[in-house]
Amino acid sequence: MAHGSSEKIVSTRVICLVIMLTSINLALNYVMIGIPNVKLMDLIVFLSGYLMGLVPGILVGVLTWLVYGTLNPFGFNLIILAATCSSETIYAVFGWLLKKLNIGSDIITLLDINGRKFWFTSLKFGLIGFLATSIYDLITNIASVVIVGLSPIMAIISGVWFALIHEVSNFAFFFFGCIPLITALKKVLPEKEVIEL
Fold first, then answer.
1. What is 8-196's CATH topology?
2. pTM for the full model?
3. Which string of DSSP letters, residue by residue, matches 182-196?
4. Among the listed residues 70, 74, 51, the one whose alpha carbon sits nearest the alpha carbon of residue 62
5. How confident is the model at residue 175 (pLDDT cuts 50, 70, 90)?
């Protein structure tokens, strides 16, 4: 391969981190399985996209759902698996976009953040988590129409309670979790998503 080639590969370190974060997601999902729609998975997928880039973030989300959606005590459904796998990528995309827009990128350590800036940045992350979850829930609720045979409006209405729990819990997870986890994970994650050949 020519030295000046513009081809890129994902580093071995990033692949290991994708596997590690997918494993953490799976462990947390199974531990929290008794609490419907309250999972830390979305936050971890978001952080993967934010800190490692779009492709690793998407991989963490899709790989997590491929295992969790297939080996789930509540059962397996191919349509729901497709909807959740594709919808989970929303969190990686939002994380990647926020990093590109430099939202929260000035976070070095929690000690470097003054109180007002800390809470304002946390609020931004919480609102982004709420918005991304609203989109995710809309897509997955409409996907349930195919399975149950409800009208799209009925699917959304019947799923509103679960969606609200999901959206509020994700607001809290993103609000309280993003800054501390970004600070901690920056210490172990590589600076770049890819290595140039």
1. Arp2/3 complex 21 kDa subunit ARPC3 (1.10.1760)
2. 0.87
3. HHHHTTTS-S-SEEE
4. 70
5. very high
